[in-house]
Each structure stands twice: as structure tokens, then as C-alpha cells.
């Protein structure tokens, strides 16, 4: 490829081809509560501590889109901690998603640096509702909260939840670290992560006005959103701003040390210096030079940064930073030290790595598994891995998918669940997602990266898929588990807390409780030294 890719870019190109107690059913919207605005949808007003906003009542939900939670990060505010927006007094119409943050992904609405907006779906039922805050994925370089498969109307309706989704700064604009870009608190690089914290602080201050309970806030995300959730568990300024967490197909590894390379990852400062050179900012007032560049110029420099290929998954090197302020250590180490002691739900899909195989030429030809082992830097362990994954029996491609899934998603999920379960007082819940999309372009990838999103939000049509009755039922069960965790701090009763070597839930039709995670392969990979911390 001509430029580093977010680990979802090829995958999303493929995709774009194509419970519990709740209020009474809305008219003609029992099974698909996708919001459909019409001319008769009445406005609904709420006053935030920044000013009044006007949303819309749609199918029994109060919906607000594009609420500013921070000032535009432009000018002197670029590469700086998010600031409160300028207070407004006239009602602000919030009926359209805010623009995505600057990115190069095709097919998104026009991006803008004035992107720090969030969205709220709120039930009209009485009482203070639990809150789920969704953080989108996209490899920290693409994606936005307004994507169709993140529409939270169905989830909010079925589970009687307030659901919040948010944009945050991406790529170099979100994660550029340099000594010249040090914040007043001496941190650097975590601008996008600080945006997420600022949104959570907005929730703490304002969600009661939308019918939410600020003492029952759950953070959830998939892919880079899940990595964000893991990182927020460890982040100092995020402590106390959330009370449960769901980590879907993420890990704890994609963070940079400020000054030292770690494994396949360069140091954050090395990436920052390379970006400054690419932007022609090498002398004089470096910060002023960088801030004078257009977002287009910044994105062009970002595209020229070498990708980090960590265990076969190519990532842009624009990642959260262990800066000693926002992050005082690597996420797994901080969780083991007792940070983020909240109930955690964590898991992975059966075929997470299927999305990278075509791009790597792993299509099922003889020798593909061997070549994949070389690509992930495990050539010295090829004999042991061949014996463990049996490509001659399972097939070259499927063996590579299983290895890639174990290395980058499934085994880190188990390790994180074990860390959460054995540290502090809160319980952890481990899951395996084993149901593939039943039809459409998604189905050919197996239980691919992102499959769980279809079932959590219920928008199969976003990937040209028609759910069977079994899939619709499974979607309701998934929504009920996430919703019950948000409300009570524990998911559905049949999902037992995880302890090392203990039970986990396999989502399928039907779902089952099991104890043999990935056939015991994670322990074998650990013994081979192939699971870095």
C-alpha cells in the first residue's frame, strides 16, 4: 500500500459494498427502531451548562446531535488540551451530526477541525437512566460517531438507556507528541484521549438534564474505540468519570512510550520529529510553524509516516502516549496496579484477523501460513506454530486467521479479563463472539472484526445484511447484556464472572458457557514468548 493504513480501512471498504424492560413499542418500529425524522417530529429543549440545545423527539426518544462539548481545537488550541466551548445563550439547534474530525477516509461527510461534538439518545420514560458512552473505532485515524451502524436509537429504546457517542481528534492532529507541544500540565500527545475525557466530564456535568444518571456511566467501544476504553481505564484524569466498561475487539498494546521505542512501536517523540520534518517545521518556533499548517498538509504528512506492523496488523503510529501525566504507565500495568477498578466486559470475535489476510496475500495457497508467520515476526517459532495451528488440516488461510486473531485480539482479551478479575474488587466478564453475519458481503469474512457491532446496535442493513430471526434474537440478547451491565454493574445472570481458567460466554445461536478459551492456544503462545505486554 502507498501509505500506512488504519487497521479497519480495507475492511470498511469491503463493508461499504453494499431484553429487558423498555417503554411501550413505538408505532411501526418494534423490530427496527432506527430513527426516521419527519416534518411532524416535535422539538425538545434541554439546557446544558454551556447553553440551551434543541433536539427532536423521534419515535419516543429525545435525540440531540452535534452538541459541542469542547471549543474548536484550532489555532492556539490545536495540539492543546480541549477547552470548554464559548457559552451561548440562544438555543442551539442540534439535529444533525457534527462533522467528522479530519481524516482521509473516503465517503465520510466533509471533515472539519471543529469536530468535538457529541450525540445523545435519551428515553422519554421517567427516572434517571443508566448511560452508555460509545467511542468509535478506526485505528485512531478514521471514523466518526455519525456512521450508520452506530445509530443508537434501537439500543437506547430497547434497554431504556441514555446513549452518548462522540468524535475525538484523530491521527497527527490527535496524537502528535513533541516537547514543543507540551501542555501546561507537562503532558503531550494525548489530545484525542483528552477529548474523550472531556466528553466524559461533559456527561458528568450535564447528563442528568437529559434523563441520565451520572453515577451509572458505562464506556464502550470497538477496535480503536476498545483500545481507548482500555486506555481510559488507566488514564489518571478519567478516574471516577465512568463506572463500567465494555472492551470489544481491542487490546492494551497500541500505546507509545514518550522517548523509548517498545517492541515494534517507535517512541512518540521519534514520530513527532519525523512529522515535523515532513511538515518543514525544524527550526525557530516549531509549535507556531506546525499550527500554521492546514489540516490537509498535516494529513499529507501523516500519510507518509511508516506504518507500525505489530503482530501482522498495520497501524498508523499516531497512538496514545505514556506521557507521565494523562498516562503514567502502560495500560495493562496500570490495570494490574489497581486503576480502572470497575466491572469490565471484554472479548473478541472468532475471526478477527480475516480482514487483513487478502491485503497480506494470505488467500489459501500452499505456504501461506508459513509466510504469515514470517510476517508477524515469529519465524523462529514456525515449527511450534505449525504444530499448534495445523494448516494442513484446517487450511492455510484459516490457520493464519486463527493465529492472527489469537495474537492481536483473543489472547490479549483473556489477559485483560484476568488482570481485571484478579485486581481490585470489580468483576470481569469474558466473551467469545462466534456468530457470523448470515448473508451479505460481511458473511464471507467469517466472524470478522466488527461483527459484534451489528448485534449491539442492530443495524445489519449498514453492511447489506438481512438478519434471520435467530440473528434478531441474538441482537436483543447482546443489547440486554450491555444494557444490564450499564444499569446494574453485572450483565445477564447467565454470564458468570471470569476467573483465570474459568467460564466465559460464547455468543452464538444458541449462546453457551465454556471454559476452554481458544483451545488453550493462548497459554502455548505465552510459553513461546509471542504475547508481549
From TrEMBL:
InterPro entries: AB_hydrolase_fold, CarbesteraseB, Carboxylesterase_B_AS, Type-B_Carboxylest/Lipase. It comes from the Bacteria. Coiled coil: none annotated. Transmembrane segments: none annotated. The keyword Glycoprotein does not apply. PANTHER family: CARBOXYLESTERASE. This is Carboxylic ester hydrolase. It comes from Corallococcus aberystwythensis. The lineage of its organism: Bacteria, Pseudomonadati, Myxococcota, Myxococcia, Myxococcales.
